[in-house]
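Narrative of activities, Objective 1.

The group set out to show that a structural description can be obtained from nothing but a protein's sequence at a throughput compatible with the screening campaign. Below is one input-output pair from the validation batch, recorded exactly as produced.
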Amino acid sequence: MAGPAPKVVENVSIDELKKGLADKSILLVDVREPNEYAEGHIPGAILNALQKFDVAALPQPGPGQRVVLACRAGNRSLTALGLAQAGGRDDIKAHFPGGFKGWFEAGEPVEK
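Output recorded for this entry:
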């Protein structure tokens, strides 16, 4: 699925993601497919699959929070970032380029 290129891209490191999930400053959105999400996902991630990506379903961050998008390895999250920004969510600028693959390979916990 091709989409508009994101206007702004902030890459979130695994350490930054872990800290943000722990202190609730990051709202993580997984854009993989439902079957991929069901097989395992980063704890706390919510699903908004790229195949049926819904900008309106993206969470609204509270004070001191930001939305970060993630996929398997960083490609689909960039596409979703472009779609979110094109859909008016200029507050969404960040993605985790390592994706679930990087998280899993680093030995981090996985939720099913």
